[in-house]
């Protein structure tokens, strides 16, 4: 049976195309931390391969024979929340089961039985102390999903690990690795009495915090080439820049695209079919539209206030907001979730192309579903979209409905841009694509509408640029800057059929007659239609 791209659970080398998990972090650094008896954190966004890496590291250590390494996922304690007794018993029980399987005997069970009646706030410390004393080699403990625990229970686990630290390695684990989405220093733990404890104060023995990175371009290529070598199915080299743009190496997205284009698209199960760029676009759209679990988790996070405070100014392109005006804790939280990236000398941005598509679509999902516009109303005889007709209708819709519709959005400050994108998405769904560019301080949102004219992929495509701006300053200066930006975007997009600049005037003192207009302009030899909203 051929291997496949994995999108659920840890990678198994025999079943899945795999990048060597031990190559995804600095193994020498981690081994040095373990030799130095350090306790440290490994964190990364969900579904980036943390568990696969921990399991590979566990097997590596056990194979070399200097330590007894055990992996324990403590997510099962999440349901008990602030019930410290239940959570600590669950943690001890999980470690017991995993170590019993590894050793092939009942020693861990016997040790756990000796601590059953102890107070919950000392049970884990005593269990690990007695367990370490019973083993012939130093214990290395990997605790996965540590940040799934909450409140009093999480604080109890962290403090009990700290309590035995001085007894390592003879009477406590030589090294403990905590693994989760966020660094422990960023935990703000609300106790049952409403006091707040930070993870750093509850676990102040942490030596390092290591972040698992995304795949590189070379690793993406290698992963896909494993499929080619094992099945003979080839990828056009032009696919790889598109895969990078869509995923920027986010491991679940990389694997999801690979699985979609080689298996879920049933016609491509014929391994003589060569994978071409248009298939990657189709696979991306299908993943977004289907809203797999990974995408659903992302969508759920958008509802959190601390996520909204970071994402809203990015998608609205606000010019009067920079990183320093957003709470640092909020920024770090959203970075740790994998939603945004911060690169030296550059503003915050959404992490990859698929997330850039998912976010505005999800924020306008209910709006798209309730709009009455149908694609055929705007279809030209050649299969393209009559964009001027569409924007004329949107102007009227915006005039009649903007106040009530924008008020429904969680992200109201980005309401005008989101409302137009919902209108466009409803029209192109299933028959075209909208590529989006936006970011903190960009002063606009760039949209590229692509519509296959024949209805078949690989044929001629209508390409239309739409530049969205909020009126800031005078109308004349906004138009002047917008024409330059629209023309520049048209140049970057290559062969473009038409360009439109849409300016939203959010003034409450002007009448709709003053705000609603459209007229053509020329810039750098290009005709650009400018629309006032």
Task: Detail the topology: elements first, then pairings.
Elements: H1 27-35, E1 39-43, H2 50-64, E2 68-73, H3 84-103, H4 107-115, H5 120-134, E3 139-144, H6 151-163, E4 175-180, E5 188-190, E6 196-198, H7 199-202, E7 206-211, H8 217-231, H9 239-247, H10 251-264, H11 277-290, H12 293-301, H13 305-316, H14 328-336, E8 340-341, E9 349-350, H15 353-363, H16 365-370, H17 387-406, H18 415-428, E10 433-437, E11 445-452, E12 461-470, H19 475-493, E13 498-504, H20 512-515, E14 517-523, E15 526-532
Parallel strand pairs: 1-4, 1-7, 2-3, 3-4, 12-13, 13-15
Antiparallel strand pairs: 5-6, 8-9, 10-11, 11-12, 14-15
Helix pairs in contact: 3-4, 3-5, 3-6, 4-5, 5-6, 9-10, 9-11, 10-11, 13-14, 17-18
Please explain how this structure is put together:
- The chain is of the alpha/beta class and 533 residues long.
- It contains 20 helices and 15 strands.
- The strands form four sheets. It has a six-stranded mixed sheet, sandwiched between helices.
- β12, α19 and β13 form a beta-alpha-beta unit.
- α9 packs across α10, α9 runs parallel beside α11 and α17 packs across α18.
- The longest helix is centred in the N-terminal third of the chain and has 20 residues.
- It is elongated.
- The mean pLDDT is 89.
């Amino acid at each position: 049976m051929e291997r496949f791209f994995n999108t659920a659970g840890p990678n198994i080398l025999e079943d899945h195309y795999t990048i060597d998990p031990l190559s995804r972090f600095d193994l020498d650094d981690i081994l040095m931390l373990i030799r130095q008896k350090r306790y440290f954190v490994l964190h990364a966004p969900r579904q980036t391969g943390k568990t696969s890496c921990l399991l590979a590291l566990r097997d590596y250590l056990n194979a070399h024979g200097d330590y007894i390494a055990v992996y324990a996922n403590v997510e099962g304690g999440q349901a008990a929340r602030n019930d410290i007794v239940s959570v600590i018993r669950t943690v001890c029980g999980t470690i017991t089961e995993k170590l019993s399987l590894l050793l092939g005997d009942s020693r861990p069970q016997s040790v756990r039985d000796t601590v059953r009646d102890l107070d919950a706030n000392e049970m884990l410390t005593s269990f690990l102390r007695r367990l370490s004393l019973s083993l012939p080699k130093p214990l290395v403990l990997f605790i996965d999903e540590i940040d799934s625990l909450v409140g009093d229970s999480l604080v109890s686990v962290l403090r009990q690990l700290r309590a035995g630290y001085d007894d390592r390695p003879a009477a406590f684990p030589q090294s403990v690795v905590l693994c989760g989405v966020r660094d422990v220093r960023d935990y703000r733990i609300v106790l049952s009495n409403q006091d707040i404890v930070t993870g750093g104060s509850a676990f102040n023995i942490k030596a390092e915090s290591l972040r698992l990175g995304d795949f590189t371009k070379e690793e993406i290529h290698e992963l896909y080439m494993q499929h080619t070598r094992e099945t003979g199915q080839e990828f056009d080299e032009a696919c790889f820049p598109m895969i990078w743009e869509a995923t920027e190496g986010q491991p679940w997205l990389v694997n999801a695209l690979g699985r979609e284009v080689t298996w879920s698209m049933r016609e491509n199960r014929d391994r003589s079919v060569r994978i071409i760029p248009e298939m990657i676009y189709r696979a991306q759209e299908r993943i977004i539209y289907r809203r797999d679990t990974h995408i659903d988790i992302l969508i759920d996070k958008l509802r959190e206030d601390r996520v909204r405070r970071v994402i809203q100014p990015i998608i609205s392109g606000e010019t009067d907001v920079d990183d320093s005006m957003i709470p640092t804790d909020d920024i770090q939280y959203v970075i740790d979730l994998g939603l945004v990236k911060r690169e030296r000398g550059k503003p915050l941005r959404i992490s990859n192309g698929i997330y850039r598509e998912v976010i505005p679509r999800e924020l306008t999902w209910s709006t798209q579903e309730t709009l009455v516009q149908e694609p055929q109303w705007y279809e030209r005889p050649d299969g393209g979209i009559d964009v001027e007709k569409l924007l004329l209708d949107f102007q009227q819709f915006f005039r009649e409905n903007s106040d009530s519709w924008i008020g429904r959005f969680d992200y109201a400050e980005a309401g005008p841009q989101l409302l137009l994108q919902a209108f466009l998405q409803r029209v192109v769904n299933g028959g075209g694509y909208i590529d989006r560019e936006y970011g903190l301080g960009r002063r606009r949102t760039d949209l590229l509408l692509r519509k296959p004219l024949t209805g078949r992929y690989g044929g001629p495509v209508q390409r239309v640029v739409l530049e969205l701006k909020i009126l800031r300053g005078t109308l004349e200066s906004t138009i002047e800057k917008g024409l330059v930006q629209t023309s520049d975007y048209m140049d970057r997009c290559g062969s473009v059929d038409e360009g439109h600049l849409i300016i939203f005037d959010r003034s409450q003192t002007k009448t709709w007659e003053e705000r609603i207009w459209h007229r053509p302009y020329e810039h750098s030899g290009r005709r650009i239609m400018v629309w006032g909203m």
